[in-house]
Amino acid sequence: MKRGFLAALLLIAGLGLYAQDWDGKWWKNSRLAEEIGLTSEQGDKIEKVFVRSRPVLIDLRADLEKKQFFLQQAMEERSAPREDLEAKMEAVEDARAALQKARQRMLLDIRQVLKPEQWQKLVQRRQELRARVQEQRQMNNARPPARKQR
Amino acid sequence: MTMDPNGKMDAHLTEPELFTLALPPAGEPEALPRHLSECPGCSRAFSEWKAAVRELADEEPEALQRRTPEQWDALADKTLAAVRRSRIGGRRFSVRWGLAAAAVAAFFAIAVPLWRARPASPRPAVKEAASTLSAEDQADDALLQDVARLTRSEDETSRLWSSLAPEPSSTEDDRL
Questions:
Q1: Which member of A29, A105, B19, B138 has the lowest number of beta carbons within 10 Å of its beta carbon?
Q2: In this predicted model, what pLDDT tens digit does every residue of B128-154 receive, in sequence order?
């Protein structure tokens, strides 16, 4: 039981690392690239797509974080006018949508580089990993808390 | 440190204490308590913790990523078995077993992200060559992961909202 609990925690940590890598520059990870059969030429093309998107992503991330900060500050102030809060909330969601669109545009360009079956494998593998992390977390949460031994 | 049933001071180090000593906060010198040099059991247990830290710290990120769940299991088993062996003969072994399991779990949960986030240190040339992600790539990687996190619904703002205005419980839902 203790070993199982420990193994579950370790598995989450390990899978969490894998899942994170699929969000990052997965095409630079030889193991992950191999899993979907990525060629070096495709890797170079994907890198170019990313380099083109990078300045936009940097700007939009900064914009979203700035707006989140302003909203957080306003929310902590109990006297902040409701209209002001609503405007800031709207600004955060607009900024998030802009970042999401930029990310999706980049992903669309990346998809153009990949063969349909490669893309399919990429999406499927990523979903599998996320599902496994989620499943392990749920299993872990469902376990009864360990008895205090002291 | 705790008191034993006879009221005497029991100076054996707990697993969390050994864990903290094996993985001191970044930049802080490792200060070892005197008890470690006087107690063979604690000293052996400490060596096992250090060995586990070294095993992870010596691995490249790629190798760490390649670890299968079975390998994580094996590492956990090995560390737990080694800590258990080092405690055999120690009178508080059975009481500490549960704590040791929790501490090992905490160790792996903390050590891996810590190791990944640590500042670059001088390493052998062979290891440098094995690394595939350059500093620039690592920054790009962090950017992409950040973007993915921010565009998910569970971001900082959502967490802030739920702490300020918790979701209604099921009984409240029923009443509405």
A1: A105
A2: 333 467 888 888 988 998 898 888 755
- B95 and A149 in contact by Cβ < 8 A? yes
Q: What is the spatial distance between Cα B41 and Cα B48, in angstroms, rounded to a whole number?
A: 11
pTM exceeding 0.80: no
Domain positions in chain A are 1-38+128-144, 39-113
Class of domain A39-113: mainly alpha
Q: Which amino acid is at B172?
A: E
Q: Do A58 and B64 touch (CB under 8 A)?
A: no
Contacts of B51 (CB under 8 A, 6+ apart): B82
What are the residues facing B2 on neighbouring strands? B10
CA distance B130 to chain A (A): 12
pLDDT in tens, B85-139: 666 554 444 445 555 666 666 666 655 555 555 444 444 333 333 346 788 888 8
